[in-house]
Amino acid sequence: MKITVESKSGSCAFQCGGNETILYAGLREGLNLPYECATGTCGTCRARVMSGEVEMRWKDAPGAKKLKPDKGDVLMCQTRPISDCLLRVPSDIAATDGNRPTSRRGVIRDIRKLTNDVAHFDLYLTEPMDFEAGQFVVLEADDLPGGRAYSMVNFDNSAAKVAFVLKRKPGGGFSDWLFARGKDEVQVEVFGPLGKAVFRPEEAKNIVCIAGGSGIAGMMSILEHGTRSGHFEKYKGAVFFGVRTLSDAFYVETLARYVTASNSKLHVTIALSHEEAKTPTHPNYPMLRLASGMVHDVAAETMKGRYENAVVYVAGPPVMVDITIRALIMGGVATSDIRYDKFS
Amino acid sequence: MAWKRICGADEVPENTAKKFDIDGIPILLVNYGEGYRAIPPICPHMEEPLEQSGVIVRCVLTCTKHLWSWDLKTLEMKGETEKPLKVYDVKHENGSILANIEEELAYEFDDAEEEDDDFFK
């Protein structure tokens, strides 16, 4: 089916199958259609159907709250075409230069518990995927409809295996379900890579990462890429990883390895929100600093006046991301130097 | 011309914004230090309530939700912002801030004039 999208910057057209969403089909064609979460929660990919017939997959999607269905408003990430369609989108649309996302299959294996409510899992892809550090994919299990977004933890070119962090949310459907799979193999549909909060060494900047809980996932990919590309030989890195208590921290061994490899250019602080830090550094990894308090407060205090030539990455629970972004802007960080993708 | 009193000049501290209801029309009054702006209370991007989502630093208003921002002195759009702010004229008179309100300003689907299109309302 032919989808035509009118935008402020002109009109474009692409083909969309009956089983894929209009957003995914457009992104696959290399168009920068507006989106953030790609999974129905944020509302950024809204559009107005001017003609043609469509079906909304998830009618009660949180991101659809502000839509006017009687006017033909839809979320493109949840909309499949039934006929050729004409849509309008309230933003500029152009072709993009990054890796085009596409659909592939994968198998989840090795779900390993890292803490009480966080697990690590590997996804083996049928076709390798190129992605940028900081990007995410949408996974949909065959047995459980609905896509969920996960940031890649690792970094590789043409990756056949990608790794993710799974945060168990009580009553959280997919995460609960997947958490319980353990050693089982889980077949999934994978769409990606997605997301604009990426790290490119050629930008030649210091990097600051502020992560709450499982938000550290994409930062690990950035640190892996930074470490391997020798970025920290020239540029500084500061990582702030917020967790409730020290026993909730994970990937500490890997973080310690990055710090050691950086020759003191990279600093990692674990901020404990629900426990007093008993020692100034991690008891087993003295290269990791410990601090008490909310991660955005710890980051703001440590980084005050030190954001020069830095790109700041933010990820975590939506409230934490909002507060952090506000603090960064108040701290004088330019919006072009703040990168985040909100999809939790 | 319908100049209406919004509030006293000391009611909205520097670098803050406060929402007022003026005869049924919601107005966000922004004090950016070097002056005031009276604007619709929502971000033209995704309808975020700017009284909560907005930050004013060095005469620039930024909506923290998606980082759209505007220079409040010149109304220039900054960064990746795609829509201009709509503003009511403002004046400072005898300790009060007044705005010239003819009718409610709202954001349309795109920049074209379309009377019946209320995508952003």
3D architecture notes:
The complex is a heterodimer of chains A (344) and B (121). Chain A is an alpha/beta fold. Chain A has three domains: 2-88, Beta-grasp domain (Ubiquitin-like (UB roll), Roll), CATH 3.10.20.30; 102-194, Translation factors (Elongation Factor Tu (Ef-tu), domain 3, Beta Barrel); 201-340, 3-Layer(aba) Sandwich (Rossmann fold). Chain A has helices spanning 22-28, 174-179, 216-228, 231-234, 252-261, 295-303, 318-330, and strands at 2-7, 10-15, 46-51, 54-56, 73-75, 79-81, 85-88, 102-113, 118-129, 136-141, 144-151, 159-167, 186-194, 206-212, 237-243, 266-272, 288-292, 310-315, 338-340. In chain A, the strands form four sheets. A six-stranded antiparallel sheet of chain A has the order 11-10-13-8-9-12. Chain A has a six-stranded parallel sheet with strand order 17-16-15-14-18-19, sandwiched between helices. In chain A, strands 2-1-7-3-5 form a five-stranded mixed sheet, covered by helices on one side. In chain A, helix 7 (318-330) links the parallel strand 18 (310-315) and strand 19. The longest helix of chain A is centred in the middle third of the chain and has 13 residues, at 216-228. The two termini of chain A are 32 Å apart. Chain B has 121 residues and is mostly beta strands. In chain B, the strands form three sheets. In chain B, strands 5-6-7-8 form a four-stranded antiparallel sheet. Chain B has a three-stranded antiparallel sheet with strand order 1-10-9, with no helix packed on it. Chain B has one domain (3-100): Rieske [2Fe-2S] iron-sulphur domain (Rieske Iron-sulfur Protein). The interface between A and B is medium-sized, with 23 and 22 residues.
